[in-house]
Fold this sequence. Notes:
Blueprint: H1 7-24, H2 32-43
Amino acid sequence: xxxxxxxxxxxxxxxxxxxxxxxxxxxxxxxxxxxxxxxxxxxx
Length: 44
């Protein structure tokens, strides 16, 4: 029998995915240095 995950875990997964997409969309496909600068100077 397959156990389904708790609904809170499912919701958390979706929220985490949405936040990751929203934060990372500005640097997707760029070089590592560009991504690191984005994190260091715009997110922190």
